[in-house]
Amino acid sequence: MAVFPFQSGTPEPLLRASGVTIDYGAVRATENVSFDVHEGDRFVLLGPSGCGKSTLLKTVGGFITPTAGTLTLAGQRITAPGPDRIVVFQEFDQLPPWKTVQQNVMFPMLVSGVSRAEASARALAWLEKVGLAQFAHAYPHTLSGGMKARVAIARALAMQPKILLMDEPFAALDALTRRKMQEELQMLWDEMRFTMLFVTHSIEEALVVGNRILLLSPHPGRVRAELNSHQFGLHSAGSVAFQAATGRIHRLLFGEEPLVQATGVTVTV
Ligand SMILES: Nc1ncnc2c1ncn2[C@@H]1O[C@H](COP(=O)(O)OP(=O)(O)O)[C@@H](O)[C@H]1O
Ligand SMILES: [Mg+2]
Predict the structure, then answer these.
(1) Does pLDDT of 6 surpass 50?
(2) What is the pLDDT of residue 264?
């Protein structure tokens, strides 16, 4: 295990959360959460239910204003939703059933002022990247859960957001489809190098999907540690190192290892 301080000379982060505290009335959802996401990061918020992952993601989305602290995207304070931050949720039945797959992917682009010709071309290009080009004219009810997930990802990335926000996007899928989607997301990232903030409560998913992982503990949501996990990925699940990292994260999350002061410290698992 290596522990080393942040380098102050690192480039300006794309997204910076600084001392973010969020209260819902008397309920404190998160307390003093800080993290930096750099361009091209696959940054994961990991922790048990109730640790404020969705709340943090919605705050990055601009749907919730923090009680204290700030969020900035490319140096600009986040105060409202915008097309530079697109969310993919767990429920893919957010796809309107009366629109074809291609029309579904085009819709947010049309709403944000992209011309019909460009929206159509971008939609087809992204459907091809997620392996659904031949389903462009199909309706959502004819697709499997995994295919709907791919449409949702294509629709989000076609908007060319600065950061893709994903809230447990594969949680409703069966285990095999879920693993396949994790792999496909990884392959898409290898090709396109977008920046993503990914929420999950699964340690294995965090290790497969992420290059950095922020561990959160609940009630209220606080940072326990920030992990460097870039060495894992597509083909590492099941390896001895992967199993060791899984165990280590479990101990960090559930308190059998002393709390690592997150701010300024990175742990390599
Ligand atoms: N709209 C809301 N009103 C009141 N409390 C909420 C609301 N949303 C979430 N909470 C509370 O905030 C905490 C964090 O919730 P959430 O962000 O959904 O956590 P997670 O996504 O990690 O499961 C929980 O204690 C939850 O009960
Ligand atoms: Mg949640």
Answers:
(1) no
(2) 44
